[in-house]
């Protein structure tokens, strides 16, 4: 019996998709991807050398991008509807009309390298069921999420192994790295090791339009979740009573004003310009508090140089309200930050990938239902004698 040509096409599409999924599986689990690891310190400028194309496996990136092509939201889309039916528009803005590709770099920064058992830098095969949602395991989960997202949309990705800064809390390390990468890219996107991208098919360009991150915006950060602690009151307010911005997600654009801002931010603890700033070198919340106490008041002359991303769109997670005194119901609609429930991150990542793959499979079923679906005719009713 001959097979219709349309069925051949269906089988071809399915087999190509299967091969791509197998390649993804092998690449991630066999540790075949090598991402450059860089050190940063006083000599960061000399330590970093950009090598284009910086994607660790360009062929993998093309395969992933092609796999997700049927469900990727166009940069110029006016709205996006999530799986629960909630629709988000672009705010009526079209700052970004074309994909920026390698002009955007997503960077993970840490003083640790997850290369132990089931770590992303471990050459042995990963056992996903045994990956933990804390410590190095959590880092691996977040880094894979960030890396996959970069591959889907053609962005660059870096994992920067940073050195500790004497006398400073570890979270200070990100600022030197962001400043250095801004010399090589138009946008630098940093996310904490417990922050995950929720909708893998939604590009940053769409989110930039939605959040009004324009060509004149230097830095965008989400509004923090407000938290009340006994004896301390609302710990999420600065000295002027304004809610702080959360430095667990930083989106910086390569502009002269941004470089001036980064310099002031990094040098703030020297107290040459800001008396009293030195206390935040090793007092929580370190560089995050410095930005909200000092920098945002001096470096936002146009009102859009610094963009405050809504808390519920790039911070928190479903169910955070009420936990440890949190009073804001920030659900992390686009970027979830699992500060208080890190063990949920692994499930969130799995759900995010499975959601996109389910959409791809569903589209294949729907588009090829005539070849896939076999309708058995109703059986004739037997008559009793």
TrEMBL record:
Its GO biological process annotations read:
protein N-linked glycosylation
* Gene Ontology terms for molecular function: glycosyltransferase activity
Which keywords are on file for this protein? Glycosyltransferase, Signal, Transferase
Transferase found in the keyword field: yes
One Pfam family from the record? Glyco_transf_34
Q: Which domain of life is it from?
A: Eukaryota
One GO term describing the cellular component? Golgi membrane
* First and last residue of the signal peptide: 1-29
Q: Indicate yes or no for the key word Ribonucleoprotein.
A: no
Q: Which family is this sequence assigned to?
A: Belongs to the glycosyltransferase 34 family.
Q: What is this protein called?
A: Nucleotide-diphospho-sugar transferase domain-containing protein
Biological source species: Staphylotrichum longicolle
């Amino acid at each position: 019996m001959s097979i219709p040509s349309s069925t051949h096409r269906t089988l071809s599409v399915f087999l190509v998709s299967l091969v791509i999924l197998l390649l993804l599986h092998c690449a991630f689990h066999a540790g075949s991807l090598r991402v450059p690891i860089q050190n940063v310190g006083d000599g960061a400028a000399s330590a970093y050398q950009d090598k284009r194309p910086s994607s660790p496996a360009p062929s993998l990136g093309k395969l992933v991008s092609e796999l997700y092509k049927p469900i990727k939201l166009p940069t110029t889309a006016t709205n996006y509807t999530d799986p629960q039916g909630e629709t988000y528009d672009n705010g009526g803005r079209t700052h970004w009309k074309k994909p920026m590709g390698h002009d955007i770099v997503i960077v993970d920064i840490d003083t640790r390298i997850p290369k132990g058992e089931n770590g992303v830098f471990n050459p042995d095969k990963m056992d996903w069921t045994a990956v933990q949602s804390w410590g190095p395991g959590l880092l691996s989960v977040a880094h894979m999420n960030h890396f996959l997202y970069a591959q889907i949309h053609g962005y660059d990705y870096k994992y920067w192994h940073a050195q500790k800064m004497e006398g400073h809390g570890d979270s200070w390390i990100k600022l030197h790295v962001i400043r250095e990468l801004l010399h090589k890219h138009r946008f630098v996107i940093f996310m904490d090791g417990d922050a995950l991208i929720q909708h893998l098919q939604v590009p940053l360009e769409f989110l930039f339009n939605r959040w009004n991150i324009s060509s004149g915006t230097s830095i965008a950060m989400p509004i923090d979740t407000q938290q009340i602690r006994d004896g301390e009151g609302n710990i999420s307010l600065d000295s002027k009573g304004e809610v702080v911005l959360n430095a667990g997600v930083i989106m910086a654009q390569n502009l002269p004003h941004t470089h001036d801002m980064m310099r002031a931010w990094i040098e703030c603890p020297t107290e040459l310009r800001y008396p009293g700033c030195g206390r935040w070198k090793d007092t929580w919340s370190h560089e995050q508090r410095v930005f909200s106490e000092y920098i945002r008041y001096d470096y936002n002359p146009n009102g859009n140089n610094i963009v405050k991303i809504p808390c519920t769109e790039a911070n928190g997670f479903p169910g955070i309200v009420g936990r440890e005194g949190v009073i804001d119901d920030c659900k992390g609609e686009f970027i979830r930050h699992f500060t208080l429930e890190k063990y949920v991150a692994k499930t969130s990542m799995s759900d995010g990938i499975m959601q996109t793959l389910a959409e791809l499979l569903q589209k294949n079923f729907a588009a090829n239902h005539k070849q896939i679906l076999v309708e058995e005719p109703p059986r004739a009713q037997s008559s009793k004698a």
